[in-house]
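Let us practice reading a record.
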Amino acid sequence: MTKTLNNLRILNTRPKAQAKDLKKAIEAEGGVALDCPALAIQELSFQTPDLNSLEIAIFVSSNAVHYFFKSLRSQNIPWPSSIAIVAVGHATANALLHYNLRSSNIPKECNSESLLAIELLQQVKEKKILLVKGEGGRTLIAETLVNRRAELISLDVYKRVMPGYDSQYLQTLWQDKAVDIILFTSEQAMYNIFQMFGPSAHSWLCNTPCIVLSQRLAKAASSLGMQRIIISKPEAILETLHQFNQGLIHGKQQ
């Protein structure tokens, strides 16, 4: 593969486990992936519902898949084949494949709005649906399904927490201007990065280009004062980095 990123320095704020594949891909094309997890994922204990009563199960992230089925395996609880599975995106669907489960219900866009638009979730009155997710986050999926009169079981299997970090390392990054572009994959990661770097670095953060994965995240970045915001589809992050590196896109305030 031709190396075309030419030492472009990308601050990767994804949680450690989710950052690995993108880091490898960036480095394979000559970029520099700077690991800076802005979130840590902490497993939560939960009471497993009666799976045999479920008609639909929705998984909102690969972490939701991992921690849910980790618990099921530890208890030797089988997964009923009668349950229709919905994955919020292709990464979540791929996580399901590790447990020999396939979702044929994947929205076109990896967000709550697109998920709620799939045909399976339109007529759900009195259907028992399991929503497997992390603590906190958006409430749109749950609220909409309840409004559609579904019998919803919402299950938090993990939570996002502030990670440990090296303040001196972060200070060196911004004082030496050692980052060309920042990747954000969640709103909480943005807030955490501003807290981790501290007030002295806010001007630098606001003027450093960033990539976000939705219009909603772009608005959140703008509300923090970021000036050069680029929106990318999750599956097109590498292509977006190439375009940025070639000067084809520059980012703008949303």
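A brief commentary: The longest strand covers residues 151-161.
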